[in-house]
Amino acid sequence: MRHPTTDFDPGPPGDASVVPDGDAWTLVFVRDLRQPPERVWRALTDPGELDQWAPFAVARDLGAPGDTTLTMIDGDTRLEQPVTVLRAEAPRVLEYTWGEDRLRWELDAEGGGTRLTLRHTLAQPGMDAMVAAGWHLCMAVLRRLLDGTPVGVIRGRDALAYGWDDLRDGYARRLAR
Q: Which of 174, 133, 129, 127 is nearest to 156 (CA)?
């Protein structure tokens, strides 16, 4: 997809950390959004909204527990991955598997907005900076979508045109253990 906004700048690396989680590591990614949790919840669960900012398309609404499929998209390449929604407690907690990874989204009301915390437990070690750079771009696109100034989804190799390499390097320095 071509992006209607050519001056899109996702900004510098933000608040993120990596914490031990049993035998794995969890990337903790925090963003403050101006919208209330109910609005952010829709963006995290509704297939039409996810398709405007997430790195994948979904086969069904993620707002209810159960199995589904996420499709990773990179240009013309499509890769389906099994997903199980483990918890869907609107509008506070959404947790699902993604292949061997686990994602937990926590939405906390902050003033009139939402503090959104993503806890992405990584099955593959050493991926934290790359995953953080990807989520950084997705969250910047999500913020613009929620603010009413969408830039269009940025997936796969398209991320390189929006500073993914610099973000990855910045998060690698920030997350060094």
A: 133
Residues in Cβ contact with 126 at an 8 Å cutoff, skipping those fewer than 6 apart: none
Q: 177: which DSSP letter?
A: -
- Collect all residues with Cβ–Cβ distance below 8 Å to 146 and sequence separation of at least 6: 33, 34, 35, 39, 40, 43
The residues pairing with 58 across neighbouring beta strands, listed in sequence order, are: 70
Q: Which helix (H) or strand (E) holds 82?
A: strand 77-89
Give the tens place of pLDDT for each residue, 103-132. Answer: 999 999 999 999 999 999 999 888 999 999
What's the fold here for domain 16-175?
Answer: Alpha-D-Glucose-1,6-Bisphosphate; Chain A, domain 4 (3.30.530)
The pTM score is 0.93
Domain ranges of the chain: 16-175
Let me know: does 98 contact 57? Beta carbons within 8 Å.
Answer: no
Nearest to 30 by CA among 46, 19, 39, 38: 19
